[in-house]
UniProtKB/TrEMBL annotation, chains A, B:
InterPro entries to which the protein is assigned, alphabetical: ArsR-like_HTH, HTH_ArsR_DNA-bd_dom, HTH_MetalResp_TranReg, WH-like_DNA-bd_sf, WH_DNA-bd_sf
Keywords tagged on the record: DNA-binding, Transcription, Transcription regulation
Membrane-crossing segments per the record: none
SUPFAM superfamilies in the cross-refs: Winged helix' DNA-binding domain
Listed GO MF terms: DNA binding; DNA-binding transcription factor activity
The protein's name: DNA-binding transcriptional regulator, ArsR family
SMART domains: HTH_ARSR
PANTHER family per the UniProt record, alphabetical: TRANSCRIPTIONAL REGULATOR, ARSR FAMILY (PTHR33154), TRANSCRIPTIONAL REGULATORY PROTEIN (PTHR33154:SF12)
Length: 112, 112
DNA sequence: TTCGTCGTTCTACGAACATCGAACATCGAC
DNA sequence: GTCGATGTTCGATGTTCGTAGAACGACGAA
């Protein structure tokens, strides 16, 4: 959003990323974004209130996991895969594989 | 830990592991154990009270990150590297590399 | 301008967490 | 049996987290 603080690639901290990826909703969001496509905020579906979804997206953004871009009145979210892979090689892939196998965050998805 | 519950390899959950590895003290403990050697409880040094250290070791154990063995009145702790690598390939290595580079948990060590 | 949409922020609350000191249980040594 | 060492557990405390609803600010459309 407006005061969005996206950490630079070399400012991304592993503890923050681990913390961000220890919640099922947030892992679900990452899974949805894992195809590399940018998604509109309103496209995202999660079993939580709007304010809670905003909170989770903020945690991901602050940790450096996602990037949020504002365009007019709406936002687009994207996974910072390149930055994460460069900084923590193998981490994202490991989490995605495990989450996929366990079905974690399966209740997070996209609008029909 | 007489009632120590060590999850089986296939019971280890990625969210629990991520949560366990999102605290600097616990990451420091994992770094100390990363050489694969089993360590005595009393050998471990961390800037927290004994009860707090016990708590952190329990979190790691419950998550399946470490294994605790009791021998008489003392305990020995060990990293479950094989199980973690088998279940979440690349995860532990990624975290250890990042933690090492950032000096996370550097205040955790071994008795002289 | 007025209205409605979009997403954030504020406020609040219960749950979970990190922390400590004290009390406890267990075991080996004397 | 008694003592000391070793970890765990309990109780308390302050903090952080996940959650929701309400209010807000920014923008586009009518």
């Amino acid at each position: 959003m407006r005061n969005a603080r996206h950490p630079e690639r070399n400012e991304i901290e592993v503890l923050s990323v681990m913390g961000a990826l220890s919640d099922p909703i947030r892992v679900g969001l990452v899974r949805v974004l894992a195809d590399g496509r940018e998604r509109g905020w309103g496209e995202l579906r999660a079993p939580v209130a709007k304010s809670t979804l905003s909170h989770h997206l903020r945690v991901l953004r602050d940790a450096g996991v996602t990037r949020t871009r504002q365009e007019g009145t709406r936002c687009f979210v994207e996974l910072r895969r390149d930055d994460l892979d460069a900084r923590f090689p193998g981490l994202l892939a490991a989490v995605l594989t495990a989450a996929d196998a366990a079905g974690i965050g399966a209740d997070v998805g996209l609008a029909p």
